[in-house]
């Protein structure tokens, strides 16, 4: 991803030096060192969050804001609070799906797709068959069509209510009965940021953690003396489809991030999440289905080819049977088959516990994922 960030990371001399400028700038073999950040983290452990929101670091941020026409104030920093929320729960067959609640969009949209899929015998469909691809595509389409209701209300309970799901399930079933009919246009959702990381952790006692985080592309700035690279979420056009400075003061910015845990018989069996903007939801959905309904081991569940449907276009990774792809093309789908696997389709780094009880890990190769075992 270095080439995608080159211009941003090169804009500030101190930031560029952190990443190897001038001789090793953003090279894959460059060893990143940030002693100022190490000192900051040690100081943060001693002083607590006030260091950042009210103390020396806050003053350094505010000084930069004043010097460059920024809008953040001391009141903005001092009044920020972390909100601990209950996860969004969705039952799917014998599994319990726990994910990021509103204001995140991703979790609710994945849960809605699962609610639509509940009525279909997906476990009996061969992976990658024409019927499998059509079902997943139309579920993604119907979720896109339902999405504005949730975007407007933010009410996940109403969005996932049996009445609302059933209304959309009727439309889904109608389309699946007739391949050749013209299907409705899908609404273009807001674009999302695309520089996101996910970590999944499984410990010896079977406890699972799913953690998704993002700094956007960063603003190309290091807080002097701290080694801290801030995020640029307030400057991310993808997160502000109505334009900058149009949001309601104090309202949390939504995202597609959806770190997810899966339980079976009250025991944790899977932690999964992904980067990839709007593809986060389709990546997590497909890994979950591969691991549960299709009984793949975790490596194959993550590495199996994926699809993503949006704006009436079906994006297809290589690896699906050619005859199945051609069949759904004959049915009228606008298909783009990618020549290689690509980070466009997410990076669903996952850990799980197999039905036999052994631990599994899978770092998604699309985003240079890796598995580390600590003994």
Short account of what is shown:
With 375 residues, the chain is of the alpha+beta class. It is 35% helix and 15% strand.
Structural commentary:
With about 375 residues, this protein is of the alpha+beta class. The protein has a domain at about 90-190 and about 255-365: 4-Layer Sandwich (Glutamine Phosphoribosylpyrophosphate, subunit 1, domain 1). The protein has helices at about 1-10, 15-20, 35-45, 50-55, 55-65, 75-80, 105-115, 130-155, 155-160, 160-175, 280-290, 300-305, 320-330, and strands spanning about 90, 95-100, 195-200, 210-215, 220-225, 230, 260-265, 265-270, 305-310, 315, 335, 350-355, 360. The strands form four sheets. It has a six-stranded antiparallel beta sheet with strand order 1-2-7-8-12-13. It has a three-stranded mixed beta sheet with strand order 9-10-11. A two-stranded antiparallel sheet has the order 3-4. Strand 3 (about 195-200) and strand 4 (about 210-215) form a beta hairpin. Helix 7 crosses helix 8 and helix 8 packs antiparallel against helix 10 (about 160-175). The protein is globular and about 60 Å long. The two termini are about 30 Å apart. About 35% of the residues are buried. Residues about 190-195 have low confidence and may be disordered.
Name a few traits of the molecule.
375 residues; alpha+beta; 6-stranded antiparallel β-sheet; 3-stranded mixed β-sheet; 13 helices; globular
């Amino acid at each position: 991803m270095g080439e995608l960030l080159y211009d941003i990371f090169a804009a500030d001399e101190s930031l560029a030096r952190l990443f190897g400028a001038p001789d090793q700038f953003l090279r894959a073999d460059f060893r990143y060192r940030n002693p100022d950040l190490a000192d900051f983290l040690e100081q943060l452990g001693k002083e607590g969050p006030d260091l950042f929101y009210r103390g020396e670091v806050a003053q350094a941020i505010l000084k930069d804001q004043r010097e460059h026409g920024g809008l953040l104030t001391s009141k903005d920093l001092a009044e920020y609070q972390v909100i601990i929320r209950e996860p969004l729960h969705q039952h799917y067959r014998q599994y319990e799906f726990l994910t990021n609640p509103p204001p995140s969009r991703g979790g609710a949209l994945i849960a809605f797709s699962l609610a639509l899929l509940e009525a279909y015998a997906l476990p009996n469909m061969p992976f990658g068959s024409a019927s499998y691809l059509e079902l997943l595509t139309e579920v993604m389409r119907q979720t896109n069509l339902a999405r504005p209701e949730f975007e407007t209300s933010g009410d996940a309970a109403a969005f996932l209510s049996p009445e609302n799901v059933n209304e959309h399930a009727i439309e889904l079933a109608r389309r699946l009965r007739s391949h050749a009919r013209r299907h409705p246009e899908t609404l273009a959702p807001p674009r999302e940021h695309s520089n996101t990381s996910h970590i999944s952790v499984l410990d010896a006692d079977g406890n699972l953690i799913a953690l998704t985080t993002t700094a956007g592309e960063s603003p190309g700035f290091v807080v002097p003396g701290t080694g801290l690279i801030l995020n640029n979420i307030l400057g991310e056009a993808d997160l502000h489809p109505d334009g900058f400075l149009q949001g309601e003061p104090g309202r949390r910015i939504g995202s597609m991030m959806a770190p997810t845990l899966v339980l079976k018989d009250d025991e944790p069996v899977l932690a999964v999440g992904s980067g990839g903007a709007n593809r986060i939801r389709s990546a997590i959905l497909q890994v979950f289905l591969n691991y549960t309904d299709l009984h793949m081991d975790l490596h194959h569940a993550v590495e199996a080819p994926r699809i993503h449907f949006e704006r009436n276009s079906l994006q297809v990774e290589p690896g699906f049977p050619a005859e199945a792809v051609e069949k759904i093309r004959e049915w009228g789908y606008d298909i783009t088959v990618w020549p290689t696997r690509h980070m466009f389709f997410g990076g669903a780094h996952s850990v799980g516990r197999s039905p036999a009880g052994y631990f599994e890990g899978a770092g998604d190769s699309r985003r240079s994922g890796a598995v580390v075992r600590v003994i």
